[in-house]
Amino acid sequence: MKLTISKEAQSWFDQEIILHENQGIRFYGKVYGSTPIHEGFSVGLAVDTPQQPIVKTIVNDRLYFIEETDQWFFANHDLIVDYDEKLDEPCYRFVQP
Fold first, then answer.
1. Which DSSP string corresponds to 4-48?
2. Domain of 62, in residue numbers
3. Is the pTM value of this prediction over 0.90?
């Protein structure tokens, strides 16, 4: 599993989210909505401190991660976090490696 953050998404996170020491941006599966791989669940994000990350990436000194407890949601897929200009928010693509 890989986690990729586009430059456009990174710029949005830089402008919208303040992180304190030891914090990062966590992606997880949340009830409500849908994705191409799950009906009834969508991708959530939160400012959090990693406990048991299964994947993490650092871009421009910002940590992005997925916790072990959310492996079920992302299993067998890479997550690409991009930016939706119309909605002015992150968007997500799931890619099978």
1. EE-HHHHHHHHHH----TT-EEEEEEEEEEE-SS-EEEEEEEEEE
2. 3-95
3. no
